[in-house]
Design a protein that fits this description.
mainly alpha
């Protein structure tokens, strides 16, 4: 019998650094939008108009980590329950704090939100339940996907390890088939279930299975191919597609597949001693706080900038780097004084609820969006 405590022992520093890069892409995308809306001209290059594809990397990374941290766990209710508890307790507490802060500010500045919200939509926002409109904290739409995938994977953990790849492929086919039939447009719940972006979780999970089963062979080749594919997708999207916002289906092909190669490649080269600089991993630790807090910060700082902005680029040259620096410093402070204590508290509660617990995996201290 395979022990439930046989979780992979090594922290993937390169993947944590990649997560930090994905978060930074999303922040620069929103900063690019804000700069353009306030001044019409930007010092940030057009490259960042596609920064939203950092989300595609997040989804691939999440799928990868789910397989990585549960490799060799035996199928059991305890395994699934503890897995889901660990992920939910990682996502919700800091998110609830950010959403509560936004709700408080919204009562003073209702114009801060781009859409009207009812009591029902606010409750769904806090629960990360699929809704016809975006959550109050709009970036949390990705967390809705995350929680759904955690639920799916908790069910997959009931399957013996040797059949889990088949279960993931079966779920992938189910999502792809339903999406092809147009079932994603019938209700908020089914739009979530059959959303093409769910396939990016599958791509990451499949990449992790090959990484664990094959020992990370051809890591450098995979990384190079992934980077080439990612750059090619950027060039195509910026210069030839005529569409700044590709469909979710196109994003899977353009960025999900290269993202899976990049994720696999970075994990594989780390096995051979090629680790990215320590600061990049540290920045990755702050990525969830940065991801959750940056829109709120940009909204407040944007209102200040709007009051003092002048014609020309001088204020852009000052404001853009300053706002980015404030967002990064704020994410560090939020992580150190709020997120990290919440993580530790959730781990302590997990040890009380699940005895003996699955051995905590270092990667669980990282964010998954």
């Amino acid at each position: 019998m395979i022990s439930t405590q046989n979780l992979a022992p090594t922290r993937l520093s390169n993947i944590q650094a990649l997560r930090g890069g994905a978060a930074l892409l999303v922040v620069l995308f929103h900063l690019y939008q804000m700069e353009f809306e306030l001044g019409g001209a930007t010092i940030l290059p057009n490259f960042f108009s596609l920064g939203y594809v950092g989300v595609d990397l997040f989804f691939v990374i999440s799928g990868f980590i789910m397989v990585y941290v549960t490799w060799d766990t035996r199928p059991a209710l305890k395994t699934s329950a503890e897995f889901f508890f660990a992920r939910a307790s990682r996502i919700y507490p800091i998110y609830w704090l950010m959403a509560s802060a936004l709700l408080a500010i919204w009562t003073i500045y209702p114009s801060l939100l781009s859409a009207e919200h009812t009591v029902g939509s606010i409750i769904k926002s806090f629960l990360l339940w699929p809704d016809a409109q975006l959550p109050m904290l709009t970036v949390a739409w990705t967390l809705v996907h995350e929680m759904y995938f955690y639920l799916v994977f908790a069910i997959i953990l009931f399957v013996p390890n040797k059949w889990r790849l088949a279960a993931i492929l079966l779920w992938t086919g189910f999502v792809a088939f339903g999406n092809k039939l147009g079932l994603s447009g019938t209700s908020p719940e089914l739009r979530l279930v059959f959303n093409a972006l769910g396939l990016e979780f599958s791509l990451g999970a499949i990449a992790a299975w090959f990484f664990k089963a094959r020992g990370g062979v051809a890591g450098s080749t995979a990384l190079i191919l992934g980077l080439i594919g990612w750059v090619a997708a950027y060039i195509y999207q910026l210069g030839y597609s005529g569409n700044a916002y590709p469909s979710f289906q196109d994003r899977v092909w353009l960025f999900g597949i290269p993202g899976a190669f990049i994720t696999y490649g970075l994990a594989a080269i780390e096995m051979r001693g090629h680790v990215l600089p320590k600061w990049s991993e540290t920045f990755g630790n702050w990525s969830y706080s940065l991801y959750l807090s940056h829109l709120l910060l940009l909204g407040v700082l944007g209102m200040i900038w709007q009051k003092v902005s002048r014609v020309g680029m001088i204020d852009n040259l000052i404001a853009v780097p300053l706002i980015l620096a404030i967002a990064i410093v704020a994410s560090w402070l939020i992580y150190k004084f709020t997120e990290k204590p919440l993580i530790n508290g959730a781990k302590a509660l997990r040890r009380k609820l699940f005895t003996p617990p699955l051995r905590p995996h270092p990667q669980e201290a990282s964010s998954e969006e």
